[in-house]
Amino acid sequence: MPVRLPVVGSPSRTETACRCYRRHYLQDVIQYELYRSPALSFGTVMHEGVGVFWQMGGPQAGLMSYAAGLEAMTDEWKRLLPDGAKHTLESATKMYEAYTANAVLAGPFPGDYTPFLIEKRNELEFGGRILSYKVDRAVENQDDGSLVILDLKTASKINDKWHGNFNRTLQMKLYKYAMMFQYERDVQVCIEGLSKDPRPKFEYHICPQWDHDTLLEAFHEWERHAIMDEEFIQMAFDRSTEEGREVWDCAEEIGVLDTPFNYGDCYSYFIECPFYRLCTAPPSMRHLLLKADYTRVESDLDNG
Question: What is the pTM of this model?
Answer without folding.
Answer: 0.92
